[in-house]
Amino acid sequence: MGTQTLIKQPERVSSGFDDFFKPWNDLFGNGGFLGKTMNLPAVNITEAKGDFLISLAVPGMKKDDFKIDVIGNMLTISSEKEETKEEKEKVFTRKEYNYSSFSRTFTLPEEINKEKIEATYDDGVLKISLPAKEEAKKLPGKQIAVK
Q1: Bridge-partner residues for 25, per DSSP?
Q2: pLDDT tens, 8-47?
Q3: What's 64's domain CATH number?
Q4: What is the pTM of this model?
Q5: Rg (Cα) of the chain, in Å, rounded?
Q6: Domain limits at 115?
Q7: For residue 128, how many other CB atoms are within 10 A of its CB?
């Protein structure tokens, strides 16, 4: 499980292994020689007037599949989903298992009102609204003159 603060993270530089095995990875859809141990959903974080909005692309889920916790200044979004599919024909039975999980943790700024955090799930996108405390919104900005 990784932890992120609400700031832009630098891009990952590909390793020599990724470049060497790229033709096979492209063919088999591995996405990199080292691969990912977890399938992490894409995240967008936007900020307006001190309020933050975290949006995760998680299609195919239900709202009950998510667990969202705030402990101290840490916001953790996680999910575990297990599915079994069975097809029976005259000669054979095919059974497929699918298990997926993820966990994302973000460090919240002190200005966030933890009591008013809300989450919605619609059209494959989980949105978590992180409103700023009223005191934080009223603080005047200050412009610094360069000497």
Answers
A1: none
A2: 445 555 556 566 666 655 555 544 444 444 478 999 999 8
A3: 2.60.40.790
A4: 0.63
A5: 21
A6: 41-137
A7: 21
